[in-house]
Design goal:
Chains A, B, C, D: Belongs to the xylose isomerase family. Chains A, B, C, D: Its EC number is 5.3.1.5. 4 copies of one chain form a homotetramer. By secondary structure, chain A is an alpha/beta fold. Helices cover 47% and strands 10% of the residues of chain A. The two termini of chain A are 40 Å apart.
Chain lengths: 431, 431, 431, 431
């Protein structure tokens, strides 16, 4: 046991409490035949919670964690603290990038040895922990070698480095029983079109993703391959802009049955969408997978990765998740970072606890709305004409036939109220 | 002859002049073996130039044109003035929505009769005019019947109305020898997900577009079918968000060989892209068609549709057009509107003339950059590794093989300068 | 009685109901010694609810209200319906622009006669209604004569027209016992700096506002003069950008003791601020007056003026209102418009009812947070150093003295956690 | 001599050249009686060019400059390289933050000793260099002690540390003959209102700025005190949001005659303004001082600090500078950073050279437009009514009098064209 969280006890479900406890999240509460833990499938992100130093473009590290540094001993202390936090929060899942968990070596081989040693260390810890691996991923964006891209780099050696790295991370994810493997391409984009061969880079990215899918099948990994869309930052423009863009990309490279989406609230907002839009679209296209439940600030134009705190917004997101059938391999990951002024260990615990509560409230409201059924009844009623005999055949017709019908049998269709405010009021009865 | 432009003479090419004249656009100047007119293929939009009254969300009509009103005589006066402007500007093309050119009738049939009469009136005028039809399109968004969508309306009767309208507009475009037919779906989106069946509406939109393509072939229309992406406004969210979104849509509905993009600078900006990004992406996907060269204000979050005035920006756009092989059926349409304070007839002429000059400057700079070749040499040199033997085979390999190579034959790839500022300086030698 | 709301009964407070009723707003419930109605002071905006036809930049009127038209009889029918709605909703206040309530005449004099007749009609209706006038204002932006500004117009005649209009509106507000008079300068800005004399226009605007203040005193109007900031739209740039900008303007023209702010959530968002920021800033500068509680869509870059529907956000706003001492002459006005698809009379009622409920929830949460006191204790504790002896004298010192102290008595101040997530969790216990 | 720029020669003015040279900037060319160098007064920012490592929120250092590190020897090597670059570019000015030029010590005293030693080193170098100090400033935002603000910190000890730092920086600026002293308050704002006492923090900021002004007079510094507005980033909200906000702040604290603005293009854009708006506003308020000529990307929501590359935009900025009378103590500073992929020494030189050329083009165009006079004639003509007898007396009148005149002597003012497109065409004749 480290002493990092020394004054903090495991969090209990204590609805009325003002202490550090869950007021809404009760993992064992059964909703629609399933425990809340199994619905929400919370994950902690190693990345922001244990690896991020608190820097921003105008300031350096603020956190000064005892495990910051480049040795294997420190990497193991970091792992110890992480699993202590997983226990305090009683979360079923965690996630990592390779670079979060091991020190960078002087060569690919040394980085790989460091990584594999930590993966084994995780393996041992996971034998006595309830916390499982939601997903692993490769950090192909922080080191300067990736500054011009990983798979989309103008230098094929960096493609090779990236491919070898993804292989190692997929192997490790498989070994630890991970439920998904994620790819986020923060540098798979460009800073200026003037030096970019867009077509070539998209081909490289497509082939890289095919390779990951092929390798999944080769090693018998049963989890899902997830792509996480983001429109920009750090790149000026990223090829995985949003769900619709990635869908076209998957279709182009024949991958639409193989790859699902890991959708982040903050990335949706950066792309000009609501979170629920991205969820509904992925669901309608059959590519919904998992979520990162971290919001951006609506007044900031960059990725602030804040813990969620607005229950009505979260309810609308879980409503789409539930309509999509809920999570299978996916879950609710917090790719959230503390504000850089939140220095204390208790801040880290409280931030997650508050977020889990907000999600639990949102989820329960979403479930109640769906159970109530009014929203779906009203939605279906709006489209009822399409379920009539005439509606059904219309889509099989053609312009000339329809035009002839309109000519011979004049229509004068009248608009009907869209009922937006009434629907919003209905939502407000549940959130 | 109307007297609307009574004090204005046809515009001459007069490079040094401070008068109302072209200083850069010289239609007969030959560049790379083609007349400038045939490269740029300018089009005037009936919509903004003759139909828009100058209103905005906080104010009513400002323009008080003598042809405003609902009679056929006024519609013909509008056509007379329009063709007089085409002559003054010596533009090779114009474009229309059905609703721009004819009064709305009390029924579909009456609207259609009005429309067909004006199409015939156009046909007569075009016999003595050089100005041809770049494209026609149907306005399926202004009338209140379309408030909840056209093809994507919850009411199948409105789908039928829309289909019959598109048929009529395609017939008219074909009859007038139009070179393209455009679909822009301003209401094909939603105001709130709460009342929207996203999946159903996308299916309706997909089928509608298929019907248009089928009808094109049925009537032997040889022009291109163009879709014009826009992310939002008037809808909160539009299904044709941007080029990448439409590409996925075309793949889903098997239309990628049948439909091309009409890309508007302002819509690109609203979607979070640069104009040149959208052009380069469409070109790399093989779906580039035509452009609307009207900019949005970078400080305004809505569609301002201003005439272009920044030659360096325009140069980057034409650079992508030229790299895509230039226009075939497409052209440079100004879907631009006068500022609502620009009341006078001369404002309408001067706005187009200035825009044509800005485009001519941009085009000439783009051509010179391509001719010079430095930009493309530097771009190609950056990716040279991929043209080597090792680079070529890499994409045919797989993760395990690549990882084994990295292990047996260690690499340490070093980043190389992306040269952005130097490339921007090169551009500045030409613009 | 008109029959516009014929099937709708006055709304009751019925917490558990799924019907058209208040579930949270109970006007007579006493909180902190004051009735909820007297805390919240709801107002209905004539403008959006009765005068707006449902148009947008791409579409025409959708609402087709029976009172639309230009006659005095229709204006009176509109007033009848409005007061019927005030009664159904049991709201204590309403607001108007002159142009909302009377038909435009062919001359200033005729418009004024129309206006005065309606004001008298209002006066009669108000004798038997509980609904009072929160504020009146002049519409100096819709008519084409104001296209280049009202007070800031390049044409002094339009300044004169505007001044005479404001006089009439202030007289009418005074006559009806209005509690405030509002100025919003939607056209007091510019479309392009190229034709604008910024300095001159700001002087005109300053003098105009002084005239309004002088006239208030001349006629003995005891209400507040309120300015409503907005950054842009319809203008590209408006002189009353935000609270901080208006504060500087008031200081420049010696008006900071005379004018307060009417702050709108949507305008705050357009200006890049949170609503609570604008409220807190106005309060700290002593210029807080009233609010317009209509939100903008976070994904749309224009003024969507939607009814509020997010209770946690609304709670943070009322928290600032309560910290500022609550409303005096001000209130909670809904400058909200129905979505243009919400065609039915019941939509109008339900939209207001839902918004009033959201406000009531937010207000009660805000009051509970303030009562609880934890947030303010934590805030005060954070600044406790400034209340120590050393802290107090520091601001009276000077750079040289402080530098000498730092040299002679070295310090090494350590950062302390800002506790953002914990504070957000506290808020979530109440919302 | 270091060998950092070993292959690069001093840049010559060589208009037709494709080499590394100036094609537009000719320092000795006389325009309106003054050398171009004396008009433009270019400055190089030590901060971005020599201290920034090339990191971003998702990636670490890319540049690996030989002077990176924490020793005084490296700090001197950095100074040597910087002055070599000043010579190559032949720039008349440079700027620094204290933290750019000296290693942080273990105490305030040690940091101060390091700083003073480098200042002396600069002093020696400046004896043989033409490059003078445009301004100095204190970095009160990067170190973790400033994470919650400098002057506005909840901890008075950090106020004291900041005050002592500013004293040292003002002393050094004075000693080196600096022409201005700048304050930018990147952390003078907040992350969340929940932990912020806005009123108290603004008082602290106001007093801090007063202290700086008082100290300027005490030591006889003749340069200007400049405040650099920015709306946000790194703070969620910064108190110095924009020019209008700072003006109100100066009025509140009695500083409007003492402090001027240092306006940055990118900050203007982040605040929702055009650069020329901020310049015109500062000029009209009498507080224009200096500029940072670095642009933001219009598609990115954060501070990208790119070198300027769009001559027409730059021309509009210098037009406002010239209308304000040109620079006195101020100048054109490039607070620009290389893209993090621009690794090579030549990138640093080329970026500045290209930017200087763009500014020279813009400046010459601005001067020509002003000389031509058409724009100003048209602007003045637009307001001519205000220079008539009636216009002049109108502002001295009052609402009642004006209303009486409008009643007795009816007016019907007609809108006149704002001529925006024609004005834009005129600009395009010069840029």
């Amino acid at each position: 046991m480290t002493d990092f969280f020394k004054d903090i006890s495991p969090l209990a479900y204590a609805p009325g409490s003002a202490d550090l406890a869950f007021r809404h999240y009760n993992p064992d509460e059964v909703i629609a035949g399933k425990r809340m833990e199994d619905h929400l499938r919370f994950g902690v992100a190693y990345w922001h919670s244990f690896a991020w130093p608190g820097g921003d473009p105008f300031g350096a590290e603020t956190f000064q964690r005892p495990w910051f540094g480049d040795t294997m001993d420190l990497a193991k202390m970091k792992a110890d603290v992480a699993f202590e936090m997983f226990d305090l929060l009683n979360v079923p899942f965690f996630c990592w990038h390779d670079a979060d968990i091991r020190p960078e070596g002087d060569s690919f081989a040394e980085s790989l040895r460091n990584f594999e040693e930590i993966i084994d260390y995780f393996g041992t810890k996971m034998q006595t922990s309830k916390t499982k691996l939601l997903w692993g991923t490769a950090n192909l964006f922080s080191h300067r070698r990736f500054m011009s891209g990983a798979a989309t780099n103008p230098d094929p050696e960096i493609f090779a480095w990236s491919a070898a790295t993804v292989k190692a991370c997929m192997d490790a994810t498989h070994k630890l029983g991970g439920e998904n493997y994620v790819l986020w391409g923060g540098r798979e984009g460009y800073e200026t079109l003037l030096n970019t061969d867009l077509k070539r880079e998209r081909q490289q990215a497509g082939r890289f993703l095919q390779m990951a899918v092929e390798y999944k099948h080769k090693i018998g990994f049963k989890g899902a391959i997830l792509v996480e869309p983001k429109p920009q930052e750090p790149s000026k423009h990223q090829y995985d802009f949003d769900v619709a863009t990635v869908y076209g990309f998957l279709k182009e490279f024949g991958l639409e049955g193989e790859v699902q989406m890991n959708i982040e609230q903050g990335h949706a907002i950066l792309a000009g969408h609501s979170f629920e839009h991205e969820l509904a679209l992925a669901s309608s296209l059959g590519i919904f997978g998992s979520i990162d439940m971290n919001r951006n600030d609506y007044q900031s134009g960059w990725d602030t990765d804040q813990f969620p705190n607005n229950a009505p917004e979260v309810a609308l997101a879980y409503y789409e998740v539930l309509k999509a059938g809920g999570f299978t391999t996916g879950g609710t990951n917090f790719d959230s970072k503390l504000r850089r002024q939140s220095l204390d260990p208790v801040d880290l615990i409280a931030a997650h606890a508050g977020a889990m509560d907000v999600c639990a409230r949102g989820f329960k409201a979403a479930h109640a709305m769906l159970e109530d059924g009014t929203l779906e009844e009203m939605r279906n009623a709006r489209y009822a004409g399409w379920d009539s005999a005439g509606g059904k055949t219309l889509l099989d017709s053609d312009l000339a036939t329809i035009a002839a019908q309109v000519a011979s049998d004049p229509i004068d269709p009248q608009p009907r109220s869209g009922r937006q405010e009434i629907l919003e009021n209905i939502v407000n009865r549940f959130v």
